[in-house]
Structures are given as C-alpha cells and as structure tokens.
Amino acid sequence: MPAERRRLVFAGWALFAACSQLLIFVVPDLETVAFHLVWISMSLVYGVQNWSARRTSVVLTVVTLVTGMTLGGVVAEGYASRDELAEVPLMALVFLTMVWHVRRRAAALAKMQSLVERERRAQEVKELFVRNCSHEMRTPITVARCYAEMVRNELPTPESKEDLDVVVDELDKLGGLAGRLLVLADAYEPTEFEWGPVDLGSLLRRTVQRWRPASDRHWHLDTPSALIEGDESRLEAALDALVENAVKFTVDGDAIALRCHATRDGAVIDVEDGGIGFARSQADDGSGGPQSSRRSGTGLGLAIVRAIVEGHGGGLTVVSERPSGSLLRMVLPRHPPAAEPRSAPAGPSGLPHLPAAQPEESATGRERRATARQKRTPAIRPD
Q1: Residues 356, 362, 364, CA angle at the centre, nearest 5°?
Q2: Which of 54, 115, 184, 314 could bond to 309 as cystine, CB 3.0-4.6 Å?
Q3: What are residue 272's phi and psi, to 5 degrees?
Q4: What does the DSSP assignment read for 42-57?
Q5: Average pLDDT of the residues of the chain
Q6: CB of 223 within 8 A of CB of 205?
C-alpha cells in the first residue's frame, strides 16, 4: 500500500474510533457495540498495514486508556456493571496475541523468501557453469581432434591409424557431450523459445528419413497431422534424443515405432522400441538411461527431452517392460504456457544429432554408416 494511502487509512480509522467513543456518551446503551467496534477496526487496520513495533505500542496504549476511561464513565453512571471493565485488558491481550502471530508469520515468510532467492541464485550459477563449461570444452576438443587427425594421416601403418581412430572417436563423444550440456542449459529457458505452428506428423516423418540410412532397424510410422504451437527446432532436438536412445539400445533388425495423434488439449508423441528396456526406478521417474553393461550413457538425453517438454507445458512418461522394450511418451499442450506466439522457425535438417555444433564425423564412423547402408535399407510402413 502506498504511504499516502496508508496515512489516509490510519486517519480514517482514528476518526471512526473517536466517533465510536462519542457515541457511548450519546447512547450509553450501545457501549458494548461501540467498545468492540474500536478494537475490531484496530485489528483490521493493523492486519492491512502491519505497523512497526513502536507504532503498535503507542496505538495499543492510547486505545486501552481511552476505551478504559470511556467504559469506566459508563460504569460510574450505572449503565454497566463493574465486570465490564475486565474487557479492556482482555481485549488488549487478544490484540497482542494477534500481533505475535502476525509477526511470526511475517518472519517465516521472510525466511522462506530468502531460501527461495538463494535457490534461484544457485540455479542461475549452475546453469551458467553448464553453459560456460560447454563452451570452454568445445574449443580444446576441436583443436585436439584436428591434431589427432593430422598425426593419423602421417602414420605409415594401418595399425597405428586404427589407434588414432579410437582417439578421434572418443573426442567426438566429448564434443557431443559438450553440445548436449549446452542444449540442456538452453532447454530450461522457455522465454527464449521461438513459438510457432508445428505439424508433429511432418516432424516425425522428417526425423525417420534422417535416421533411417544410419541405422539398420525396422521403422514403423503412424503420423497423422497434429498441429500445436511450439518451438519446432527444440521439439526436433527432443525427438532426436528419443530416437537416438532407441537406436542405441536396440540391435540390427529390431523395431522402432514413432506415433503421434491429436488430443482435445494438444497432442501425444510415442517413441517405442523393442530393446532392453529401462530399470524400474528409471521408468518410474523418467530419468537416466537403460541399464546395460555394454552400452552406458550419460543420462543427459532424457534430461534434455524432459526440459524441452516441460518448457512447452507438457510432460514426459517412460513406460518399460524390461526386457521387452520401452515406450517414451511426450504429452504436449496445444498452446504454449503464458507465451506470445511468434514467427515459426524452420526446423533444422541434416544428420541425426542434437542441434549443437559437433566435430566432423570420423573416418571410422563414416565407414560404419556406409556398411550399415549397404547391408539393408529398411522399409517404412504404417502400423
């Protein structure tokens, strides 16, 4: 409440209290009503303005003395019994009890706000660390990769080159990890989303077209048109992470199904595979990656998906029937939460990876992808 308005409210209450006391002298039979109106109105004004300790003490003392003297005069004239005088200290004690509770609540609220502010600062520091760490990692990784490839090209024997291929592949993994950290940091900033109309059916079809040559899987598509308002590039990053997870934890010949359908409030996207599935604890909370001794993951994939989906106001559900496979479901609302739609961005295209800068693919990786394309080109068919 502005200071000027607070002064007006206090002055109005003081005038009301004075009139109530004068009413007792005019109509002595109304002394009980007028007495309680003064104390009730003072409690209301205190609750609105939350006076300082000094003002509270002064006002309480003045009201106690004035109401006590007025009530004493009424008792002296025989309009009330002496027992009525006990109400003055009792009402003062009731008011003091209310003041004590109000101040305890204010102190608890201030402490809670302090904890919330501390948590907010800690979250900002963590996101800043992730972002800076990702940026700082990518430059030395790129430099190290370039030198490794340069040394590999100078080596005379194929065995030595294979050793350097391992180094280059590991640097590629580090580069991918740095890119994922950056995407994860960006995913928690919904204010920077580029909102626009997104056809989820078309998005799923484009995703499969990019992933199909790189993986020997049976792809099943059920992708009718389903329109929502969202950030197409980030939704594509989330879908890429789910498909990458399905490809990583399946083997050649396994089935991967992508489905979407419109609902009354938005749309649902399902990515289902026949791989090794998730552990029960991970399926319950949708975190981490599938359990396997041969294929370990960083767990950032589902974290990125969850951040993007929650940034759109939706949710991610993980359903697992280990070892028969897993189903990951993204539920997206039709309109973004508390955001003004802007122009729709064009979705990224190219190789199936998250939209972060990555080092050039190694020679070993290119050979593996070429071998997979030569072995089989799986057909896309609807469920």
Answers
A1: 135
A2: 314
A3: -120, 140
A4: HHHHHHHH---HHHHH
A5: 75
A6: yes
Single out the residue of 78, 73, 7 nearest to residue 34, CA to CA: 73
How many other CB atoms are there within 10 angstroms of residue 282's CB atom?
Answer: 20
Q: How far is CA 383 from the centre of its chain?
A: 34
**Which residues are CB-contacts of 371 (< 8 A; sequence separation ≥ 6)?**
none
pLDDT in the model for residue 131: 63
Give first-to-last CA distance, the chain, whole Å. Answer: 63
| Interval 87-144: pLDDT, tens | 889 999 999 998 999 889 888 998 999 888 888 887 777 766 666 666 567 667 777 7
Predicted pLDDT at 323:
61
Taking residue 13's Cβ as centre, other Cβ atoms within 10 Å add up to 19
- Given a cut of 50, the residues of the chain with pLDDT beneath it are 279-296, 298, 339-383
Neighbours of 185 (CB within 10 A): 20
3-class secondary-structure state, position 221:
strand
The amino acid occupying position 353 is: H
Decide: 285 and 302 in contact? Cβ < 8 Å: no
- 148: helix, coil or strand? helix
Q: Is the pTM of this model over 0.70?
A: no
Alpha-carbon distance 383 to 381, whole Å?
A: 7
- What beta strand segments (E) does the chain contain? 196-199, 218-222, 227-230, 255-262, 266-273, 315-320, 326-333, 380-382
